[in-house]
Amino acid sequence: MEKLEKSHGESHNVSIQWRSYELRPHDAPPISAEYRAKIEANRPRVYEIARTQYGLEMNPGPFGFNSRPAQIGAKYAEAQGKGPAYHAAILNGYWQEAKAIGEIDVLVEIAASVGLDAEEFRTALTDEAYTEAVLADQQQAFQNGISGVPAMVFVDKYLVSGAQPYEVLSDTVEKIAEEEGEPQN
């Protein structure tokens, strides 16, 4: 997505706007042992795809954590003008550095690493306004039929689901530009 924003940002007005989505809401029942085993059995294939198609080495943090505090933190970071840096640090922290981003102290450390005040960040994690913003994002996803991540919505009407190669995203932007009658650069 970042590559798409760099390559098409100016010519096609592409920008990333993150939205909150909980794959497993914090109050969901536990995952069954059988389903967890299927997830674990599929991980090597997913990691191989990440390595070969995207050049990413996966080293994820703990499984099955409550992601809502990280999402609330994202809303705070965005309000402070640090959204992109926070999102990058959270993603890298979890997927490459195996950080336990469900733990408040880990989130505070990550927030501080991108220039956010640690104590203000910690306080923001209990601020109802940021929680409401997360819940509004989730409601919007539900209303738009989004049921997984990643999900990218272009011009509020074109949904691209799943981890897609850059070429798919670039082609989507080009097709939308043609349909919308945008000039091509």
Describe the 3D structure:
It contains eight helices and two strands, in the order H-H-H-H-H-H-H-E-E-H. It has helices at 2-12, 33-54, 68-79, 83-95, 104-113, 118-124, 128-143, 166-180; strands spanning 151-154, 158-161. It is globular, with a radius of gyration of 18 Å.
Give the structure's gist in a few sentences.
The protein is mostly helical.
Helices and strands in order:
Blueprint lengths: L1 H11 L20 H22 L13 H12 L3 H13 L8 H10 L4 H7 L3 H16 L7 E4 L3 E4 L4 H15 L5
Antiparallel strand pairs: 1-2
Number of helices: 8
- Computed structural class: mainly alpha
Taking the sheet with the most strands, its summary is:
2 strands, antiparallel
Could you give the order of strands across the largest sheet? 1-2
Could you spell the SSE succession in H and E letters?
Answer: HHHHHHHEEH
Level of helix content?
Answer: 55-70%
What is the mean predicted local confidence, pLDDT?
A: 90
Features:
2 strands; mainly alpha; globular; two-stranded antiparallel sheet; 185 residues
